[in-house]
Design a protein that fits this description.
This protein is an alpha/beta fold and 475 residues long. 36% of the residues lie in helices and 19% in strands. A hairpin with a 4-residue loop joins β5 and β6. The longest helix has 20 residues. The radius of gyration is 23 Å and the shape is globular. 41% of the residues are buried. It binds flavin-adenine dinucleotide (FAD). The site of flavin-adenine dinucleotide has 31 residues, from α2 and α17.
């Protein structure tokens, strides 16, 4: 035994209390919460990106890539809903974000650029670091990808892409979302290689401004891509294809509405819920009130409704309600929505309900895709100068072609979550292994828990989970 311990002491250079895998919003907010709790702890965040707190969402460089909710809705402090508004007020007063004046609304109603939101998250981490330092707690950023994870009775061991190995008492999977385009299924269709990254602003500037651009997917990522195209000077046609041809609605600021789900727990099945929601929206409209008001009261109940539903009910929701839910619930920031609407009215942007069937050879350059329009039996080919893939997120870890998801599945340390969305976990975030046993050293938060709570990605979800998980880990 002594020899084994001696070998481990040499191999595992870093010993930590908490190893956080992924330094996006989730991992960073978890670290910030841990630093503020009593006790001395060493926290390591393993994140390949140069900066913590950003991930894909908050690395945005385009000013027009804004949050999809206003400042009043996007605090990372569950105890202070005005936290972002207060930070922004000080930031603007100090000369930051001068373009905010163009929105001509109070600070709490501003939709900040996501890159700026990343700076806010980083500042909150820096402040938490200062608080933690008073009791000897630290956070270090290790720039690498975790490629393997093992657990024994006494510790967790991580293997990193650079060969380094880390050891800790507890570890948290804060690995975020995996883009659908990077999965083997779409790779095999060649889509990944042929399509532009929807956030690659530089690539959009390279396009012929009058050329036709094809976009697959019509959600908020498409909206970002259209903003970038416009900003890059593109003035040609934009053809958008998505299965249902639905665009996100614009986010308005509806007044408060009675919490009809809080009062009535008998509403359970997707059909009952939808019927009641429609009725409430109709009542609102009749009273001259925005239909978004009743819709927004549903938000706080989603986790409860999803977790108490049967798999069959969840499947019904995904199959029949999801497309409509996504376009009504994940709404577009007003400035971006106005741009999409203008291009649509000018006839420059067309949206078609059609499913993507694959790529076709394009000997003359550009890109050719095969699609099948909704209601038609035959597919057809559409040609453009460039293709943007904004078809979404891969939540099924079995299809994510990254080493860590593959390894933890193969080792039986995790099991797929309900409907194979992310991974299964207990209420406190403890990951369930292949046998269904809750781990005492392995936890998860954010998008990997999509299957447990359905909505597990937005800023408010992540902020609440970070606080609760920090208390759990510290306890
Ligand atoms: C483009 C976009 C815009 C969004 N806009 C909004 C919005 O306006 N409002 C809102 O409420 N929500 C929004 N969201 C949702 C939500 O806020 C984000 O998904 C949030 O970033 C989730 O944080 P995360 O840290 O869990 O995941 P991510 O931000 O995806 O970060 C995960 C990190 O983990 C790292 N990682 C992954 N695997 C490993 C590994 N094996 N080893 C080490 N590191 C690893 C990745 O490099 C990444 O940086 C948006 C999401 C996206 C993608």
């Amino acid at each position: 035994m002594g020899g084994l311990f001696g070998k481990q002491a040499m191999t595992y250079q870093h010993q930590a209390n908490v190893l956080i895998i992924g330094g996006g919003l989730s991992g960073t907010m978890l670290a910030a919460q841990l630093l503020r709790l009593p006790g001395q702890r060493r926290i390591l965040i393993i994140e390949p990106r140069a900066e913590l707190g950003r991930g894909e969402a908050y690395s945005a460089v385009e000013l027009g890539h804004t949050l999809n909710g206003n400042a009043a809705r996007m605090s990372v402090d569950p105890d202070n809903p005005d936290d972002l508004t207060q930070w922004l007020t000080a930031h603007i007063a100090a000369g930051g974000w001068p373009e905010s004046a163009e929105q001509d609304v109070p600070v709490n109603e501003l939709f900040p650029p996501r890159g700026l939101f990343g700076a806010y998250v980083q500042q909150r981490l820096a402040e938490a670091r200062a608080v933690g330092a008073l009791q000897g707690s630290t956070v270090e950023h290790i720039r690498a990808e975790v490629v393997d994870l093992q657990i024994d009775s006494g510790s967790v061991q991580l293997t990193l892409s650079d060969g380094q190995r880390l050891q800790g008492s507890q570890t948290v999977l804060a690995t975020g979302m995996f883009p659908a385009a990077r999965t083997p299924q779409t790779q095999s269709s060649g889509l990944n290689a042929a399509a532009l990254d929807p956030w690659d602003v530089a690539a959009m500037r390279e396009l012929d401004p009058q050329s036709t651009v094809l976009i697959i997917g019509s959600g908020l990522t498409m909206v970002d891509a259209v903003v970038s195209l416009e900003q890059a000077g593109h003035r040609g046609p934009i053809e958008v294809f998505s299965r249902h041809g639905l665009l996100p609605h614009v986010r308005r600021q509806p007044p408060a509405w009675v919490d009809f789900l809080g009062d009535d727990h008998s509403l359970r099945t997707p059909r009952q819920l939808l019927r009641e929601l429609r009725r409430q929206c109709q009542v609102a409209i009749t009273q001259g009130i925005d239909w978004q008001a009743p819709l927004d009261t549903v938000r706080v109940h989603i986790a409860r409704l999803w977790s108490q539903a049967t798999d069959q009910q969840r499947r019904q929701f995904v199959r029949h309600v999801r497309p409509c839910w996504e376009s009504h619930h994940h709404r577009s920031p007003p400035l971006s929505a106005a741009l999409v609407e203008r291009l649509y009215k000018e006839g420059r942007l067309r949206i078609q309900a059609a499913s993507f069937k694959g790529l076709e050879p394009s000997p003359d350059g550009g890109v050719r895709i095969r699609i099948r329009r909704r209601g038609e039996s035959e597919s057809c080919v559409v040609q453009g100068a460039a293709l943007i893939n904004s078809s979404g997120i891969e939540y099924d870890w079995r299809r994510v072609a990254r080493p860590l998801p593959q390894q933890v599945l193969a080792r039986g340390l995790v099991q797929p979550g309900p409907l194979a969305l992310g991974i299964a976990a207990a209420v406190d975030g403890a990951v369930l292994d292949a046998e269904g046993c809750a781990a005492d050293r392995l936890f998860a938060m954010g998008p990997p828990l999509r299957g447990m709570w359905w909505e597990s990605t937005a800023v408010t979800d992540v902020a609440l989970q970070a606080k609760a998980l920090a208390v759990r880990l510290a306890g």
